[in-house]
Every structure is written in C-alpha cells, then in structure tokens.
UniProtKB/TrEMBL annotation:
It comes from Bittarella massiliensis (ex Durand et al. 2017). InterPro entries: Bact_Chemotaxis_MeTrfase, Chemotaxis_MeTrfase_CheR, CheR_C, CheR_MeTrfase, CheR_N, CheR_N_sf, SAM-dependent_MTases_sf. Residues 1-269 form the CheR-type methyltransferase domain. GO terms for biological process: methylation. One of its GO terms (molecular function) is protein-glutamate O-methyltransferase activity. Keywords: Methyltransferase, S-adenosyl-L-methionine, Transferase. It is an enzyme of class 2 (transferase). Its EC number is 2.1.1.80. It catalyses: L-glutamyl-[protein] + S-adenosyl-L-methionine = [protein]-L-glutamate 5-O-methyl ester + S-adenosyl-L-homocysteine. This is protein-glutamate O-methyltransferase.
C-alpha cells in the first residue's frame, strides 16, 4: 500500500482544508486507503506527484476525482426523523396563506436520500389535505459521484425500509432487481447542482429552510464558522437551519436562535 510521507500528508491536509473546509488531519489511514485507489488507477507513484497534478490540472477533473474519494457520503432515508416531525408539526401549518413559494436548500445532499425524504414529507402533508405553496428544493454537493446517484433516484429496497409503507407505495415504484425508484412527481421537486460550500456561488437565492446536516462535522473550526455565516446569509428572516444532531453552531454566531436540538431560526421576522 502507498504510504504517504509526513510532508505529503501535511500538504494534502492543507490543500483539502483550504479548498473544501474538510479537516483530514486525524484521518491519515482513511485518506491513504481511499487515495491509494486513485493513485493506482492513474499509476502515479506518490501522493506528492498526485498533488502536483491536481494543482496543475486546469480542468478540475483530478480534484473532482480526489474529492469523490475523500468525501464521506453516508446518509439514509428519514435520518434524524425529529427534524421532519418538527417541519410537519411546527413549520408547515404556520406558513402564511399568501406565500408564493417555499424554498429549501439541502446543502451536502450526498446521494439524495435527504432531499427525497423532504419531498416525501411535503407531499404527504399536501396529500393529507395541508396547504403548501409551490415547493422548490435545491440539493447540492461537492461529490459528483454522489450527485449522479442522487439524480438516478434509484435505491435498493433495503434502503427504503426506513420509510413508512404508505410513502413507499405512494412515492416510489419497484424498478426491478430489488430496487425502488423515486416517482417522477417527487423528482421534479428537486434540482441538483454541484457546489463547494467553501466557494462563493453566484445567483444563489434566499431560502425558507436550509438543511445542512452532518456536513460541518467533517470541517475544521474556521471552515465551520465560515459555513455557518454563509448559511445565515442564505436564509430569509424567520427561516430555519437544520444541522446534524452532533453539530453545534459556533458560539459567537448571533443571527440564529436555538429552537431545539439541531434546529435554529434566523432572527428578524417570521416566514413570509
Ligand atoms: C455525511 S454526508 C451527509 C448527507 C446528508 N446531509 C445527511 O445528513 O444524511 C456529507 C456530505 O457533505 C458533502 N460535502 C463535504 N464537504 C463539502 C463541501 N465543501 N461542499 C459541498 N459539499 C460537501 C460530502 O460530499 C457528503 O456528501
């Protein structure tokens, strides 16, 4: 197995932190295991030579391949269910009846289970007689490989067992070979886009809700602060931020009010 020298590993840590916010300093074995596959594939002898090529590659393809390997894309349907219960119980019934749209950003959507869970929660609310304005969900991630799987919207039957049977019947269809596909009507609610949360993004709107869960847990402290600030700016006044239950917002963060574990509200008004 390709071993990284201390200098090479320090260079990788600095590169990944400065470009993507991710802190690999305590993940040496994991980084070695994952990048070895890429180095072998490209027949590059050392991490140093690989990083030289990543930095010289204007197309960004090598950086994409590297981050496809280095990101952790673990996710599942109905993860941290209390968030979806809160949405159905506290937010949706209080939406103003003249709201023109309901906009959600799923930042770090990985392979799509989170944004499709949201699409199902909202559809179930509407199908149960609740009123909702037109819904738009933007789902973004850094990993192209994860995004391709998200766009395919096809999952093993086992992965869908976490969903209520009624939702599986209403919002998914059998797709052969022990798989289910998310139905077209729900897929149309979600737009996917590649986005690095550490880079400014032109044309980004303001959202009613931001789900950024189990993403900053991988970030360095300065990157967490930058991300939290950016998420605050992306929310409308009164909008809600959902984080992972193990992620605490930096203390000096002031635009958010703590509501309940891993749910924060931006001050300055109510959703309109
Ligand atoms: C563990 S998954 C979380 C998925 C989902 N939000 C959940 O809670 O189940 C973390 C995701 O964050 C993405 N990610 C990590 N760093 C990122 C960055 N700088 N910009 C955008 N996405 C990033 C990874 O590619 C990965 O898919």
């Amino acid at each position: 197995m390709t071993r990284f020298t201390d200098e090479e590993f320090a260079r990788l840590v600095a590169h990944v932190e400065s470009h993507y916010g991710i802190d690999l300093s305590k993940k040496r074995t994991l980084a070695e295991c994952r990048l070895r596959l890429e180095l072998d594939r490209l027949q590059i002898p050392s991490l140093g030579a690989f990083l030289d090529r990543v930095e010289a590659d204007r197309t960004g393809q090598l950086a994409t391949a590297m981050m496809n390997r280095l990101t952790t894309n673990y996710t599942f349907f109905l993860r941290e269910r209390s968030h979806f219960d809160f949405l159905t119980r506290e937010i949706l019934p209080r939406l103003p009846s003249d709201a023109k749209s309901f906009q959600i950003w799923c930042a770090g959507c990985s392979t799509g289970e989170e944004c499709y869970t949201l699409a199902m929660v909202l559809s179930a609310y509407r199908d149960g007689g609740g009123w909702l304005p037109p819904v738009e969900i933007l789902a973004t991630d850094l990993s192209e490989r994860a995004l391709h799987r998200a766009q395919a919207a096809r999952y093993p039957a086992k992965a869908m067992e976490a969903l209520p049977t009624a939702w599986r019947q209403a919002y998914c269809r059998a797709d052969g070979d022990g798989h289910f596909a998310v139905r077209e009507e729900l897929r149309r609610m979600v737009a996917f886009r590649k986005m690095n949360l550490m880079r400014p993004y032109a044309g980004h709107s303001m959202y009613d809700l931001v789900f950024c869960r189990n993403v900053m847990i991988y970030f360095s402290e300065p990157a967490r602060r930058r991300l939290t600030e950016r998420l605050g700016k992306s929310l409308k006044p009164g909008g809600y931020l959902f984080t992972g239950h193990t992620e605490l917002l930096p203390r000096e963060q002031t635009v958010f009010t703590y509501i309940e574990p891993a749910i924060y509200q931006k001050g300055g008004g109510a959703l309109s």
